[in-house]
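Students often ask why we bother encoding 3D structure as a string. The short answer is that it lets us treat folding as translation between two languages. Here is a chain of 139 residues written in the first language.
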Amino acid sequence: MQTLKQIQFAVIKKLVIVVLILIGISYVTFSQPFPFILGIIFGSAISALNFIELANTLSRAITMPQDKAQSFTVTKYFIRYIVTAVVIYVSIVAPYINIVGTIIGLFIIKIIILVTNLLNDKHYFRNIFRRKEDESSGQ
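And here it is in the second language, the structure alphabet:
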């Protein structure tokens, strides 16, 4: 089983790869790619920091008593959302950062985690491609 740091490193590595691919695509797609690239970098950096902070919060919370852990995690939860709101606000206000790029950057890590977990579960894909007739004849 992977340790928490190994999982974090693997997700962050995939995030960097996807961001680099998106930067390359934006150079080909847009005539002025710099604001979009800044948005992707800004959003994905904050998303990665929020991901690391979530892991740290949960690691600390499991060692606390239940009532203290609950208030601690809720406080950290709201802090992460306030940081995300500030990032979106800055992206809206700053003319040199594209809001769409920022929002894409904020969502990239969530998509990476979902896709990674879906591709690692072999039973999930077996169940998708299994026919209804196969299920009824096996019983």
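Translate back mentally: Residues 34-61 form the longest helix (28 residues). Keep this in mind for the problem set.
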